[in-house]
Amino acid sequence: MLEGKKIVVVMPAYNAEKTLEKTYNEIPKDVVDEILVTDDHSRDATVEVAKRLGLEVYLHEKNRGYGGNQKTCYRKALEKNADIIIMLHPDYQYPPKLITAMAGLICSEMFDVVLGSRILGGYATKGGMPLYKYFSNRILTFIENFILGLKLSEYHTGYRAFSRKVLLSLPILENSDDFVFDNQIIAQAGFYGYRIGEITAPSKYAKESSSISFKRSVIYGIGVIWTTIQFLLQKLNLAKFRIFNPDGKKIL
Q1: Where residue 183 sits, what CATH number does that domain have?
Q2: 3-state SS, one letter per residue, for 144-200
Q3: pLDDT tens digits along 39-68
Q4: SS (H, E, C) 172-184
């Protein structure tokens, strides 16, 4: 625990056999109360590695997609009465040692959501981020900051910490089961006025790290733009969308 808050780390896994153990070894066990792995029907030995490490594993009988995997992660963590939920990819792309700092920012009650930014500090390309991803990240972030008004360094990191009240209140079951889920949940948090902070998170891009194809990246980018348009239209009361509906489907 940290300041009396129960901290649960969730790892949405898919074919993470080669990197799961390295990621797990660097998680600060003196702060983290529980570590959960949700396996999205991996085709490798991810589940066997997780069980050997003594981790609690939840299996999808069929692939539900990255967003669908996160929904399972958050539901299971909330069912365990987590006060702070931190999503850490098991592909060793993000530094697990930052969990303490991210949880601390939420414990301080200064922020409700904390993002581990690959952009702050200028570490993205140094860590191996492909240039097309870097530039598309910067362009999408500029558009989103202009419309959403959140002034973040990036919206597309997979390293996130949430307070319990955020995940209970947002209609995240209305979100996509695909990669754009990541963007939708930040837009939702901004729409409802939650405080979003950032911390520098130097990332590593290795051949073992997960990555989506160029085609999927384009689809994701289109989804990001559409989410931003939905945000604007709803704010202007010109349309209503389920992802911003306070009565939409909640995780619990």
Answers
A1: 3.90.550.10
A2: HHHHHCCCCCCCCCCCEEEEHHHHHHCCHHHCCCCCCHHHHHHHHHHHCCCCEEEEE
A3: 999 999 999 999 999 999 999 999 999 999
A4: HHHCCCCCCHHHH
- The SS3 assignment for 114 reads strand
Mean pLDDT is lowest, of 13-17, 80-84, 204-208, 241-245, for 204-208
Residues 221-237: pLDDT tens digits? 999 999 999 999 999 99
State how far the Cα of 67 lies from the Cα of 45, in Å rounded to an integer: 22
Q: In what order do the strands lie in the sheet with 196-200?
A: 56-59, 34-39, 7-13, 84-87, 160-163, 113-117, 196-200
Start-to-end C-alpha separation, the chain: 23
Q: How does DSSP classify residue 216?
A: H
Question: At 37, which amino acid appears?
Answer: V
Give the structural domain span for 32: 7-244
- Asked whether residue 250 is domain-assigned, the answer is no
Domain assignment present for residue 76? The answer is yes
* Dihedral over Cα of 212, 213, 218, 219: its sign: negative
CB of 195 within 8 A of CB of 113? yes
Q: How many percent of the chain have pLDDT more than 70?
A: 98
Residue 100 has pLDDT above 80, yes or no: yes
Q: Are 176 and 98 in contact (CB under 8 A)?
A: no
Q: Is residue 62 part of a domain?
A: yes
In a domain, residue 105? The reply is yes
Dihedral of alpha carbons 218, 219, 221, 225, sign = positive
- Give the whole-angstrom CA distance, residue 198 versus residue 60: 31
When divided into structural domains, the chain yields a total of 1
